[in-house]
Amino acid sequence: xxxxxxxxxxxxxxxxxxxxxxxxxxxxxxxxxxxxxxxxxxxxxxxxxxxxxxxxxxxxxxxxxxxxxxxxxxxxxxxxxxxxxxxxxxxxxxxxxxxxxxxxxxxxxxxxxxxxxxxxxxxxxxxxxxxxxxxxxxxxxxxxxxxxx
Length: 149
Description:
seven-stranded mixed beta sheet; Nucleoside Triphosphate Pyrophosphohydrolase; alpha+beta
């Protein structure tokens, strides 16, 4: 039964995401966060059920939510990683086609346990940064991932 419910959620995400993107582009008010969690020379990547490829975890900032708190929340929601907010460091902010994106970074000493919901997120793992670089990240985020560790 749970697998069927998960499939329905994944279908709903795939159908809703293009509509949400159009809405965000039209209103240009969708601000978001992206979080790079480093363990040694690898970075945490997630695969969404409604987008192709591996990406850094992240998501939207709720109305009246601080972007730092949004980064902590998104990391917990997408990968099950609870991190001390003091460990997150703002690296960059950049304008995107739909709003502002804030890039945070954290370095962990031990491999955290990863927990995904199998609905929005279908995979989470640590990978070399070049595995998520390809065409998905441009500008400051791409430069950040390309820089030497």
